[in-house]
Design goal:
Blueprint (H helix, E strand, L loop, with lengths): L7 E2 L5 H10 L5 H12 L13 H10 E2 L4 E7 L5 E6 L5 E9 L2 E5 L3 E3 L8 H4 L2 E4 L2 H14 L13 E4 L9 H12 L11 E5 L3 H7 L6 E5 L5 H7 L8 H15 L5 E7 L7 H10 L5 E7 L13 H13 L4 E3 L24 H9 L3 H7 L6
Parallel strand pairs: 1-2, 6-9, 9-10, 10-11, 11-12, 12-13, 13-14
Antiparallel strand pairs: 3-4, 4-5, 5-6, 7-8
Helix pairs in contact: 1-2, 5-6, 7-9, 10-11
The protein binds S-adenosyl-L-homocysteine (SAH) and iron/sulfur cluster.
The site of S-adenosyl-L-homocysteine has 16 residues, from strand 10 and strand 12.
Amino acid sequence: MTISTVKSNLLGMTKQKMEHFFDLIGEKRFRAAQVMKWIHYFGIDDFDAMTNVSKTLRNKLKIIAEVRGPEVVSEDISSDGTRKWLVRVASGSCVETVYIPQGKRGTLCISSQAGCALDCSFCFTGKQGFNSNLTVDEIIGQIWLANKSFSGVQTGVNRVVTNVVMMGMGEPLLNFDNVVAAMHLMIDDFGYCIPKRRLTLSTSGVVPMLNKLSEHINISLTLSLHAPNDKLRNQLVPINKKYPLKILLESCQRYMATLGNKRMLTIAYTMLKDINDKIEHAVEMIELLKNIPCKINLIPFNPFPYSSYERPSNNAIRRFQNRLRQAGYNVTIRTTRGEDIDAACGQLVGQIIDRTSRSENYITMHKVNVTKDMQQITLNQI
Ligand code: SAH
Ligand code: SF4
């Protein structure tokens, strides 16, 4: 018999996996629920603190298992209460997680990949290339550490994270299995008890994965649209060449149909000056979406070093919003939070060790000093 010296990290185990783990070590399955509650509900990583677990089992667990959260490289707290963590993942890259408080609601924006292979033309994560898929414990570890950072008082029933959006770095549908497993832990009663409607996956449109999502989980969906026709979307979101608007929107509709009548698709639309912000784009979008119950969230472009795009004026954004509203849509404009800590969409820098050399090309071409240049960016608030 070979004895493994690598401890199993219990942090990323779904209930099913944890039960299997306890089976394997000859313990009762109900231990899974007990231990999960300590880890996720109370944010505990020390087996000795798990007081309803027998001392013998605690000692056994100390030898073969661990609860290992991600390594936090830095934590920034904005004057508006927004928090941002830079977290190191096993591949050596770093990803970012952002917490945004809004009254009673606390939204955590989670990363799913280190970098992104899809290279949308207005996204700084895309410019950094792709490095790795995050493991389940690296994904769930972001919510675990966010809850813990509010000094333990806020764990249990008073947890600060009430909503989760998969809108950090990476394309969640391209890390399908790990993202789905982590989302199951988020909604689990012994995990984070996040209601399914308060858990949102945002995608740029990986149709084959979207087609199978409802077989695995029923959470809210945001489609990153950004253009009302294929010609423009091909330029902004290159994956559109593979999965064009018609089949993408059909896939979204099929997914939404599985959620029932009351749930609406959210359309995210990053607004780029003189590119997709004209009234004719709004009119085209109204036509495109006419049979799809949805709400629309306009995201003013957040600039990054040497990007050729600009943010439209507030007037242009409001005009666009009003035109969509006239057609009956619920249209919001995303406000920038955490300006002083660069926590906005498209501002997440991370530290990606690029496998595609895209970031190297970008950084050499533009002589970008990533950290310094990012700090100099000032964002306007609407
Ligand atoms: N890959 C997924 C989720 C991560 S991106 C997706 O694309 O949906 C989260 C959101 O931020 C997306 O809607 C994306 O289009 C938007 N975004 C990316 N870069 C941006 C920028 N520079 N300014 C404003 N929004 C940006
Ligand atoms: Fe990837 Fe989303 Fe950025 Fe596109 S917008 S490059 S899919 S993270």
